[in-house]
Design goal:
heterodimer; A: Amidase signature (AS) enzymes; 11-stranded mixed β-sheet; 12% strand; B: mainly alpha; Histone, subunit A; two-stranded antiparallel sheet
Chain lengths: 488, 100
C-alpha cells in the first residue's frame, strides 16, 4: 500500500507493480476523508460505494490487461461546480440544493475514459465567488496547516483534499486565482492552464471569458499527467482551443539551462506584501538560477489595476450567467409564490448568499444604461493594457516568476466583512486570467509554519514549459514534500 | 464620486430579479459605494484610444454542420424542475385569466 501523500505518478507505479489495488487506494481515500471531515470540511459530497464500484472495475480491467491510462484506478476529487451524471452539484449554493445532473462535464467524461475514479466533490465559495471557502452552505473549509485559517478559495476544498492526503489529485476552476491562491495557502501544486485549454462544458459558469479548469496535485509531474488527461478541444465549448495536447509528462527533463525568468519589479514592491513571503519567493528563483536559468527584471506596470478591472468584468459576466437560476427549470423555487415575477425574485433572493447578491448587483449596475462605458468598457480597455504589459514582458523572458499571493493563509473570519480586502487577495493572480495565460503555483517553503507559493506565468499554450520549470524546481528542492504536521 | 441611493439599489435589484429587505438595501448601498470608489482607480489610466478586449484568446466563431444529434430525453430534462407536468416545466401563470 502507498503512503497517503503518494502522488499520482507514485500511485500509477504502485498500481502497475501490483503493490496496491485501485480499491485499496479508493478505500484509503474514503477512510481519510471520513477521519478528517469534521476538522477540514474539504470534501462535501462523497461517492462512497459508487467510487468503490468504479475502483473494482478498474482492478478488473487491470487484471485482464486492459489498463486505460496512467490514471486508471486513481482517485480524483472534483470541485462542486463540475457536474456528473446522477450526482449532486451545489456550487455551495442553496439555490442548487437537491440538483442532480442529467449529464457529465467534459472533464468527468475524460477522467472516466482514462479510468480515473471520481471520489466526490470539494467545498468551494458559492459559485466560485470568494477567496476563502467561507461563503458556502456546507460550512467553512479549514486549512490543513492551521485549522483556524482559510484554505483559500474559491477552490479551497480541492486544495485541502490534496494537502491533507485524501487524494493525490483534484480539479478546481480558476477565474481570478481560485486554483493558484488556495494551492499556495495549502502547500500544493496548482495549475491554471491557458484559457480554452480545458473544456468548460459542464462547469457551472461564473465569468465565461475568464473561467478555466485546472489541477491540484503534490507535484508538477503529477499535474502533467492530470492535465494531459483532461485537456483538449471540445466542440461543445466554443472557446475551447482546437490545438493538439502535448504529452506534458514526456517533456519533463529537469533542464532549465538557458531559460530566462522575468521578475516583475512591481510584484516585489507592492506595499502590504509580507516581506517573508517575498524572501521565500526570491529564494525559489535563486534555486532556479543556480540550476542554470537566467534572471532578468521585467515590468508589469499596470498590475495594480488588474483587480478592479477583473472585478468589473467578472461580475458583469456573472450577473448575466446567474440569470439562469430562475426557480423554473432547476434548483430551488420559493414556496407560495403568487406569480412568475415573485417566483424569480423570491427564489433568487432566498437561494443566493450575500456575496453572490452583491456581485450580481454590481454586475447588473455596471451593465445598466448610462454606466456601461464608464465601467464595463473601461475595464475591457484596461484588460487590453494588461495584456500589452505581458506581451512586452514576454519579449524579454520565457516565464515570469512572482509570489502567488502577497501573504500566507489568513485567519478565518479576518476578511469576510471587508469585500475589497478579500478581493485584493487575488492581486498577483487575476492578471493571468485577464490575459488568458497559464500559471502554476508551487510550494517554495514555509513562514510561520504556513506554506508560501511561487507562481510561474507563461505565454499562451506554454503549459509544457511551465510544468518543465516547476518540475525542475521540485527535482532540486523538497518544499512540495513537506506536509501539514497534523495530517502527516 | 457617484453615491448609490436606496432608490438606485431597489431599481438595480429589480433588474437583477432580486428582492432585498430594507436592511439589505442599506447594506448594499454602502458596499456598492465602497466598491465603486475602489474601482474608480481605473480612471487614472488614459484608455481613450484603446480597443477593448472581450476575450483574451482570439478565436473565430466556430461553425458546424446543422445535423441532428442525440439530446437530453425530455423526461430527464425536466427531472430537476421544482414542478413539472409531463415533460413541461410548470410555473405560476404568466397571463391574466385562465388558471395556471
Amino acid at each position: 500500500m502507498v503512503d497517503a501523500f503518494a502522488g499520482l505518478v507514485e500511485q500509477r507505479d504502485a498500481l502497475a507493480s501490483g503493490s496496491c489495488s485501485s480499491r485499496e487506494l479508493v478505500d484509503a481515500a474514503l477512510e481519510r476523508h471520513a477521519a478528517t471531515h469534521v476538522r477540514l470540511n474539504a470534501v462535501v459530497h462523497s461517492r462512497g460505494e459508487r467510487a468503490q464500484r468504479d475502483a473494482d472495475e478498474a482492478d478488473a480491467r487491470r487484471a485482464s490487461g486492459k489498463v486505460l491510462s496512467a490514471l486508471d484506478g486513481v482517485a480524483i476529487v472534483l470541485k462542486d461546480n463540475m457536474v456528473m451524471r446522477g450526482e449532486p452539484t451545489t456550487c455551495s449554493s442553496r439555490i442548487l440544493e437537491g440538483y442532480s445532473s442529467p449529464f457529465d462535464a467534459c472533464v468527468v467524461e475524460r477522467l472516466q475514459a482514462a479510468g480515473a475514479v471520481v471520489l466526490g466533490a470539494a467545498n468551494m465559495d458559492e459559485f466560485a465567488m470568494g477567496s476563502s471557502t467561507e461563503n458556502t452552505i456546507h460550512g467553512v473549509a479549514h486549512n490543513p496547516w492551521d485549522l483556524e485559517r482559510t484554505c483559500g478559495g474559491s477552490s479551497g476544498g480541492s486544495a485541502a483534499s490534496v494537502s491533507a492526503g485524501i487524494v493525490g489529485g483534484a480539479l478546481g476552476s480558476d477565474t481570478g486565482g481560485s486554483i493558484r491562491q488556495p494551492a499556495s495557502f495549502c502547500g500544493v501544486t496548482g495549475l491554471k492552464p491557458t484559457y480554452g485549454r480545458v473544456s468548460r462544458w459542464g462547469l457551472v459558469a461564473f465569468a465565461s471569458s475568464l473561467d478555466q479548469i485546472g489541477t491540484f496535485t503534490h507535484s508538477a509531474a503529477d499535474a502533467a499527467l492530470l492535465l494531459e488527461t483532461i485537456a483538449g478541444h471540445d466542440p461543445r465549448d466554443s472557446t475551447s482551443i482546437p490545438e493538439p495536447v502535448p504529452q506534458y509528462s514526456e517533456g519533463l527533463d529537469g533542464d532549465v539551462e538557458g531559460l530566462t525568468i522575468g521578475l516583475p519589479k512591481e510584484y516585489f514592491d507592492v506595499s502590504g506584501g509580507d516581506p517573508e513571503v517575498l524572501e521565500r519567493v526570491r529564494a525559489g528563483v535563486a534555486d532556479l538560477e543556480a540550476a542554470g536559468a537566467k534572471v532578468v527584471e521585467v515590468s508589469l506596470p499596470r498590475t495594480r489595476y488588474g483587480v478592479p478591472a477583473y472585478y468589473l468584468i467578472a461580475n458583469a459576466e456573472a450577473s448575466s450567467n446567474l440569470a439562469r437560476f430562475d426557480g423554473a427549470r432547476y434548483g430551488r423555487r420559493a414556496e407560495g409564490v403568487a406569480d412568475y415575477q415573485q417566483m424569480y425574485e423570491r427564489s433568487r433572493s432566498e437561494g443566493f448568499g450575500d456575496e453572490v447578491k452583491r456581485r450580481i448587483m454590481l454586475g447588473t449596475y455596471v451593465l445598466s444604461a448610462g454606466y456601461f462605458d464608464a465601467y464595463y468598457k473601461k475595464a475591457q480597455q484596461v484588460r487590453t493594457l494588461l495584456r500589452d504589459d505581458f506581451d512586452a514582458a514576454f519579449s524579454q523572458c520565457d516565464v515570469i516568476a512572482t509570489p502567488t499571493s502577497p501573504e500566507t493563509a489568513f485567519a478565518l473570519g479576518e476578511k469576510i466583512d471587508d469585500p475589497v480586502s478579500m478581493y485584493l487577495s487575488d492581486i498577483y493572480t487575476v492578471s493571468a486570467n485577464l490575459a488568458g495565460i497559464p500559471g502554476i503555483s508551487v510550494p517554495c517553503g514555509l513562514t510561520g509554519g504556513l506554506p508560501v507559493g511561487l507562481q510561474l506565468l507563461g505565454r499562451v499554450l506554454d503549459e509544457g514549459r511551465l510544468l518543465r520549470v516547476a518540475d525542475a524546481y521540485q527535482r532540486r528542492t523538497d518544499h512540495h514534500l513537506v506536509h501539514p504536521p497534523e495530517f502527516a | 464620486m457617484t453615491k448609490i441611493s436606496a432608490d438606485q439599489v431597489t431599481y438595480i435589484a429589480g433588474l437583477a430579479r432580486l428582492s432585498l429587505d430594507p436592511d439589505e438595501v442599506d447594506r448594499m448601498a454602502r458596499d456598492m459605494d465602497r466598491i465603486l470608489e475602489w474601482v474608480a482607480t481605473l480612471e487614472e489610466l488614459d484608455t481613450s484610444d484603446i480597443t477593448p478586449t472581450a476575450h483574451a484568446i482570439e478565436l473565430e466563431t466556430p461553425v458546424r454542420e446543422d445535423e441532428a444529434a442525440p439530446a437530453l430525453d425530455p423526461e430527464v430534462a425536466v427531472s430537476n424542475a421544482p414542478r413539472h407536468v409531463g415533460t413541461a416545466f410548470s410555473v405560476p401563470k404568466v397571463l391574466e385569466g385562465e388558471e395556471g
